[in-house]
């Protein structure tokens, strides 16, 4: 079983830092490439650029809960939620 995980392409878990603006503030975010790929996919599905999607998400979190304690963790869990929603209809269809 671990071969599925251990055998993955190391490029997926290599980290990349992207510089962007979140609601007018310049910042940098470091995430594993697999998460960047998923965030790019989410943004494309929303019809916006990744920086625009991240800025909108950050603004919505600020409005709902205040400044997030760890925005990169929020982004990772956003990816997990998205992937769960994308694969859920496939799992239901298979039943």
Automatic annotation (TrEMBL):
The Ribbon-helix-helix domain, residue ranges: 16-83
Keyword check for Transferase: yes
InterPro entries reported for this sequence: RHH_dom (IPR027373), RHH_sf (IPR038268)
Superkingdom, taxonomy of origin: Bacteria
A Pfam family per the record: RHH_4
UniProt entry keywords in alphabetical sequence: Transferase
Alphabetized GO MF terms: transferase activity
Keyword hit for Signal: no
Listed name of the protein: Arylsulfate sulfotransferase
Organism: Roseivivax halodurans JCM 10272
């Amino acid at each position: 079983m671990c071969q599925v995980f251990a055998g993955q392409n190391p490029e997926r878990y290599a980290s990349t830092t992207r510089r962007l603006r979140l609601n007018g503030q310049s910042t940098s975010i470091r995430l594993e490439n697999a998460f960047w790929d998923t965030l790019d996919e989410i943004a494309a599905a929303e019809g916006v650029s990744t920086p625009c999607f991240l800025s909108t998400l950050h603004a919505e979190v600020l409005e709902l809960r205040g400044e997030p304690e760890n925005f990169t963790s929020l982004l990772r869990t956003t990816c997990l939620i998205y992937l769960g929603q994308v694969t859920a209809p496939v799992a239901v269809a298979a039943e």
